[in-house]
Amino acid sequence: MTETMVEAMNRDTTTNSIVITQLRKSYEKSADADAAYAVDNISFDVPKGQFVTLLGPSGCGKTTTLRCVAGLEHATEGRIEMGGEVVFDAARKRHVRPEERPIAMVPQSYGIWPHMKVIDNAAFPMRHGRNRRRGPEVRQRALEMLEQVGLAGMADRWATQLSGGQQQRLALARALLGDPEVLLLDEPLSNLDAKLRAKLRQELRSFQEQFGVTALYVTHDQAEALAMSDTVIVMNKGRIEQIDRPERLYDHPRSSFVADFIGSANLFPVRDASAGTRGGVLARTDLGPVLCSRTAPGEEVRHHNGGFVCVRPEDVGVRPADADAAPADNEFTGVVESAEFLGDRLELVVRSANLPITVSTRAGQDLRPGREVVLRLSPAATSYLAN
Amino acid sequence: MDPTTTKEVEAPAPDAVEHNDPPPAGRSRAEHGRRAAGTLVNLAMVLLVGYLVLVPLVILLYSSFKASTTELPFDVPGFSLDNYSAVFSSSRLGTVTLNTVVYVVGALAVALVLSVCLAYLFEKTDIPGRSFLAPLALAPMAVPVTVMAIAWALVANPANGPLAILVREALGIRVDVYSLPGMILVMGIFGVPSMYLMIAPAFARLNPELEEAAATVGTPVWRRLRLVVFPLIMPAVSAAAMLLVVVALEGFAIPALLGLPKQIFVYSSLIQYSLQPPSGVANYGQASTYGILILALSLVMLLVYRRRVRDTHRFRVVTGKGYRQSRVPLGRWRAPVCAVVSVYLFLAIVLPIAALVWTSLSPYARPFSWSGLGSMTLSAYGHVLSSPGIGNVLVNTAEVVLVTATVTLALSVWIAVASVRKRFRGSTLLFETTFLVFGIPSVVLGSAVLFLYLYVPVPIYGTVWIIVVALVTRFLPRGSRMVHAALIQLDDGLIEAARVTGANPLTVTRTILLPLLRPALWKCWLWVFAHALGELPIALLLTGADNRTLVVLLWDTFTSSVDYPEASALAVIILAISTLAVWLVNRRSTEKQA
Description:
The complex is a heterodimer of chains A (387) and B (594). Chain A is an alpha+beta fold.
């Protein structure tokens, strides 16, 4: 009784497929105070029907988190609820085994059984899984699903005769045939080549929407995460850095790690910061004082001495320096160190006050290495990151 | 989001009535029941394996501290170091130790040189006839060591062995297989296939690019060999060497068949001699003490071996996509090298087997001759198969090998799965414990089991079951390692993908795990089958009137009745059965690759 009340107070469990509360995972036998945590005190929700991605560099704990959700690993602390049922609670020593959780999984290596035909792989969840069926409809449904994923003619081949992309599709078909509430995907595209990856990520997303299944997706590829997800959870060193929609993640990174990991960013260390006279934060950096007034809507910037000034390369204005006009506010002089012509744009590295600044600007300007330039960091495009 | 699909997820599909999950309360009760049953099974298995593995070791240690020469160790009160002092002060220790060292080191040198040469030639050079010669080099795998030793006794005995006669006539050298050099040579040749099997993959994995990378920076060939090739194959070579030392140390058939006639003792044959001397009065204490000595030596070797094997992982040479097999051209040495290899293979493998078959078809032991062809006879086979009690022997043998292979496989699968999947606390320890048995020479193991069942009132002494118990114990470490090796090569994702569909663990094991392991399981079963068939010392020590097996009959016929054609006929029968088993293993594995 109290449990449900607490849940209701904390978060809405009826619209969430997965609710993770203060999950911690340590691989050490005894979890003492200074134990290293692969997953360190993370909490997040996955709303029903949404596509949520765990994004981070290798070793950030994203796969461990996914495996804890699947029940393939036991977390050390915390709680996991799925579909309104507590499937893991360290405090109460409750652990629902993977076979009793409403999940399906596409592992990184696909886990296609080589001793079975394609159709037997696909039909396995219906024959031996959670929601078992019998009769001719098993084969019928499996065939329909294979057709949907584009493996119609392959049903009676051995699974090992499939190519990488086909195996990936088969793994997806098999997962969906288990009628899961939550689909767990562990870097399912990482073993494929770049073109196939781009194609399959669109397919994957459209299947997920078509079947209305909740998806929790793990990847280290930020492009994949941005392209597919409703919500991205950026993880680093076992902790969550930011949970946001892809656009907000790019436009309003909340930490220097996120800014740097999603796209590219210029980050200047801040010595001290104060409130700007007309809003924003006036940050003192090695470049000089920079006014940062970009904030996410509804977000209040707290500043302290330290942190970073963040500006995307495409938001840095650049013009050749002229002797008479002194740089205005938020403008800095520098020298072009390298210039790379990339067809549609020009990528420069400008050194100013001994800091390298990456600038992405339109092509066709005469900005060779050695030229003196003026950089303009528009306050509206420049943000202050407290950490 | 599509509302219909969620509904399907939340409510059980109407047509899935039969196999639907029980309601939560029932589920947890069923689950509790299943867990309890699982725990019970695990506990029973731990006790069984622990009993099989540890009790013989304890018995051995126990009886080595019992001062007795004629009585059974359990009948002697108190403990003492008398056996050790007797062994260490005996004049025999020196000569036997010297013999053992010379025998083991000599056999190792022979096997090492031959197997490294063969592995290099077959894997790295363009020697002609590889596809025929390489399998031939492995053929002795199918020959039980007892059969091998008898074949060599026939082919190289000084009286009428064809090889001995040939060498005497051609080179004027008197060849006698009943000598220390003879034993060394036979053991060395016998050790070649298993060493080759461990070394050849190291050569095969040696990506030519590694050597080429050194060549392109201007390193001369000898330096390349020393700095690149040797370090990469060394772990495999030294691991194979350690294993051969253990096998030679505990191997009984060769020293017994070739050494005993001239009273050339090594540890293993001395133990058997102390337990079943011609005088008839067994010296159990002394046998146990020698057993402890071999065990200690073997364990040291095996520990080194394990370190080496662990190192091989570090040296694992990754073969990426760019791998291509390039072979060293032998040039004008191609034909001579091929000829030398062929002659070796003929002398080492074809000739002994031919002598065995020849003798089995002859009325009496005689060298090869054209004139002899006319008087070929099947009477030896007829005699063997019509002798009184042969039916019993065949039934006993079938019981022993079939039950041993099946039980060993079942236990091995359970141990390996429990260890890899960490089914319970200590499962890895259990797996490691079986490793100790590796170090127990089969003579020692046989005597430990003998002591145990002479004392413990379990009425299996004198039946085939006592042999089965000893053989299962003996083959458990190898069996569980074979299954273990196959298991760790399985991608975890394959099992996890099945678990997350909701299939229960038994279903996953039945439909995914065991089918994936099937080739390895067959291999393990047939391996145990073939080895159980030819395992002499255990059967010999535990034999009685009612549980004689083919290999014991072979031993008796060869050593006591000295009826060579009949012994050869028996050896050929054993050889045929084990060849069939090995052939099945190979056929299965090639089928799998195709």
